[in-house]
Amino acid sequence: MNSTNVTIVVPCYNEEEILHKTFSDLSNLLTSMIDDGLVSPKSKILFVDDGSKDQTWKLIYKETLKNGMIKGIKLSRNVGHQNALLAGIHIATESSDAIITIDADLQDDIYVMREFIENYQLGYDVIYGVREKRDSDTFFKRFTAESFYKLMNKMGVELIYNHADYRLLSKRAAEYLQGFEEVNMFLRGIIPLLGFQSTKVFYERKERTAGESKYPLRKMLSFAFNGITSFSVTPIRLVLVGGLVSFFISLFFALYFLGLKFFGNTELGWTSLITSIWLIGGLQLIAIGLIGEYIGKIYKESKRRPKYIVDIDMFKLPIGRNFAL
Ligand code: UDP
Ligand code: MG
């Protein structure tokens, strides 16, 4: 049977504690899918080391020597989850019919990959893994995530609710993805823009069994902010509207105080003056800051720097060098 050649792409940043489990769980799953004839025996698991500071690359490298299903690439430095995913997808595209991306911590149910592939075979180009419940996440994480989705949707960006970066892309979807050249890649926002037939597969999200989340609050906020400013100019418009509103309110008060001066008690406080100065000053700073954010984005985009640099690609190994550094 002519079955699907799939590559499972796994971005890893300082994941030494969980990698053993990830290797064995994923290769067991892939073996069983190959045995069932669901996927081609040429299918692979590609680990992308995103410039880890721990033993991650060594572990990946050693595993590739033992296990023919496992491949690895090492990026020259840490470029972040999204760019690490892109690196893996781009490298896997050439040799695969379909690419599945999943986090190394196995918080996502790996067994629904079977459904991903069945849906791919039915003809879908994009299959989104969607978390049915987020019980394992803290209330805070759930709340911030929910607000983020709502805000993005309000601003006209189509995001799949409760879908992270666990998904299957067909070869052609992955190829077209390469045409999106922006530097600030936010895959969750870009992939719906491909417009291909897509479907969702639901699963329960588990807790991380080892290691720590690489998304502490600070990173999550910057991720969300990036997502918003990369896709929408609504914040700039809101600032404009805010500026206009505050301008007319100030105008009203100015007239009111002038009226008081000429027709009544002129005992006007210092407070009103100073608060309005601060208020307007603050508003101006916000506006300038936001505009600066967009200009910064334009600046970054205009440089067209590579999003990642592959240090070691185990698909194309030059002979006679040691790569376990
Ligand atoms: N990751 C990465 N580069 C980074 C940060 C994270 O490749 O700079 C990987 C990480 O190893 C994991 C995935 O991205 O496989 C998601 O990260 P994490 O589990 O920490 O995020 P969370 O699930 O808490 O949102
Ligand atoms: Mg995680």
UniProtKB/TrEMBL annotation:
It is found in: Membrane. Coiled coil: none annotated. It is a multi-pass membrane protein. Keywords: Glycosyltransferase, Membrane, Transferase, Transmembrane, Transmembrane helix. The keyword Transferase applies. It comes from the Bacteria. It is an enzyme of class 2 (transferase). Its main location: membrane. Gene3D superfamilies: Spore Coat Polysaccharide Biosynthesis Protein SpsA, Chain A. Its EC number is 2.4.-.-. The chain crosses the membrane at residues 238-258, 270-295. GO terms for molecular function: glycosyltransferase activity. Residues 7-174 form the Glycosyltransferase 2-like domain. This is Glycosyltransferase family 2 protein. The lineage of its organism: Bacteria, Bacillati, Bacillota, Bacilli, Bacillales.
